[in-house]
Specification:
Blueprint: E1 4-5, E2 12-13, E3 26-27, E4 32-34, E5 39-42, H1 48-58, E6 66-69, E7 74-77, H2 100-114, E8 118-119, H3 123-139, E9 180-187, E10 194-201, H4 209-212, E11 218-222, E12 230-231, E13 235-237
Length: 238
């Protein structure tokens, strides 16, 4: 499938308010990829760079607690949030420790800035994205495309900046591994939906290899919860 690069959105003109610095007239967004689906797909997860623009513009206050993993143990840290997640605060890292509502708030803000509809994908939409990426994992070495537990022998698994590894054939980075991704899918069966929990997909930097090769791999987490190994990838309606 030919990949159409939709727009040069790395530099999108930003509304005037507020101006914290002379360089605050630019909004940095991921490139949108046309995969032949009814929606466009962000090539990366939401980064700290874009999140910082959101926080500056809206004066939104991030809060804890966040569940922190070091690859072996998990602890709830009451004062940890996306800018204090234990990972490097470099702009090119995916934003973690965001709950479902916070991820939606950023999407709403992006929609206002761009005039497009940015949103969290449904579980079905995420599966469509991942199905394309999975063919790449089958064709090439997993280590070249996914950051997961034990990717590099002898090294402790850890979060990586976006675009550290090769993209899928469609041009999407880190669909599998690095961080789990929020979807709008509710937990439970068709007649017993529990939307206080939402489904995350794709695996993270501490996920074993065997789980990354399965498109259907998922887990439910409280929509109000925050994890330092979960982020969000947005889709944009055509």
């Amino acid at each position: 499938m030919a990949v159409a690069r939709i727009a040069e959105l790395e530099r999108f003109t930003k509304p005037a308010r507020p101006k914290a610095s002379a360089n605050n007239d630019q909004l940095y967004l991921p490139e949108l990829i046309d995969m032949g689906l009814p929606f466009l797909v962000a090539e990366t997860e939401l980064t700290l760079q874009t999140l910082k623009w959101f926080l500056t513009d809206t004066r939104y206050q991030l809060r804890g607690p966040c569940r922190i993993s070091n690859g072996n143990k998990w602890r709830n840290k009451p004062n940890h949030h996306a800018l204090n997640s234990g990972a490097p605060a470099d702009d090119n890292y995916p934003a973690t420790c965001l709950n479902f509502g916070e991820a939606k708030a950023v999407a709403s803000w992006l929609s206002k800035q761009t005039g497009q509809t940015w949103r969290i994908p449904s579980g079905e939409e995420w599966t469509q994205i991942a199905t394309s990426a999975r063919s790449t994992l089958i064709s090439f070495r997993l280590d070249e495309h996914a950051n997961y537990s034990r990717r590099l022998a002898g090294r402790k698994p850890a979060l990586l900046p976006v675009k550290s590894l090769r993209p899928s054939d469609a041009g999407i980075y880190d669909v599998f591994g690095n961080v789990w991704e929020w979807t709008t899918e509710c937990d439970g069966q068709k007649n017993r939906k529990n939307c206080s929990k939402r489904i995350l997909r794709g695996g993270a930097w501490d996920t074993p290899e065997k789980f990354l090769r399965t498109v259907g791999r998922k887990f439910a987490w409280s929509a109000a919860g925050r994890l330092n190994y979960a982020g969000v990838r947005y889709v944009v309606d055509r």
